[in-house]
Amino acid sequence: MADLCPVEKNKEYIMSVTDIGNDGEGIGHIEGFAVFVKDALPGEKIRVKITKANKKLAYGRLMEIIEHSEYRTEPECPVFKRCGGCSLQHLSYEAQLDFKTKKVKDALMRIGGFKNPQVKDAFGMDKPYFYRNKAQFPVRKGNQGVDIGFYAKRSHDIVNIDSCMIQNSINDKVIKIVREYITEENIEPYDEISGKGLIRHIVTRIGHVTGEVIVCIVVNGSSIPKKNKLVEKLLCIDGIKGILLNVNKKNTNVILSDITKVLWGRDYIIDYIGDIKFQISINSFYQVNPVQTNFLYSRAMELAGLTGNENVLDIYCGIGTISLFLARKAKKVIGVEIVEKAIEDAKRNAKLNNINNAEFIAGPAEKIISEVYSNGFMADVVIVDPPRKGCDINVINTIIEMMPKRVVYVSCDPSTLARDLKILSDNGYSIGEAEPVDQFCHTTHVETVVLMSRVQK
Q: Please, are residues 392 and 412 in contact by the beta-carbon 8 Å criterion?
């Protein structure tokens, strides 16, 4: 190994940390060779022990911080170092926002080829804790009882918790109740290796504005013992609107199956983004940080520049969150999404808000928008909010062919954002100011909204 790279496994080195990786690890160089070190921060001088090395890079364990970063802070969460839910709690929140701003700008320059992209400072939260409105807790048998929590970093070992700093605090009570129920009834939690055991996960949805709550127990079976006892215990939770049972007997990492039974109440909550009302089921795709989502969608609305006369095409529309925001100021909106259940939710939410100028179509985006365009729909504004992999190239090509005046791109991955914006830039569009939004506080993820305007020839 020594003849392939300047570091050797199990040896220790002194190095300076200069950057943060996608998983929150510190990045430094030894003789120009990249080394990734968990828990290290930029600006620190460290002693590192190499744990893995190949021709291109190495990974190491932090042994000692010789010079501390001025931005290092004590994590609020007691299990931060073991839990895989957060990766940046040891970095001050201001420095987290600076990192995310830099991450977007670097991607636009390095991947997009934009020489001096205008990137606003990342928009953060006043209180970046307890913000998530959806939780998924795996349940396993532990050494000292029932483990309920989150997976440890890079594993399926569960870090047992009583509380989470980024989840709604209502979940603390849910965890306590379900743990007591499992213990009292001597119910066997699910085991991933053997495929035996009953209770697999607890999934919750909580309305930020309404405070409505649904709790779903995912089981490796068709029922649970003494379900009325569990229901009675959960009914003491403020805002509870539904208690559900999801039947998932498959040996899979997919949490929820298509089979959900209502044990009590209803199978959805009602919540708002701005003044738009949404009916949200346990399976619905819905942004997990409603405070930041309200800001993000308001910015998308501003960038769309609607006057009431525009046709809007919303690609990757999910349950219609952005579509319904825009429909109030547009002539017509067509939303496209591959997940049929999401389209059903979108149609339901349009009716819920008495919005009649929004149409939703299920199918692959590249196929549907080509058909919509062929049938004569000319979009003045296109909104794209794709998954992490970015837009399908056929989607980009159809947008270019359609020649809308404005393309508002909402992205959850700066790398694929930069890649797609470069294609648009090479085909008649100019990039506006990019605005990062901190949707996922204390993680390395960042949302970005940016406007691409068609260049007048």
A: no
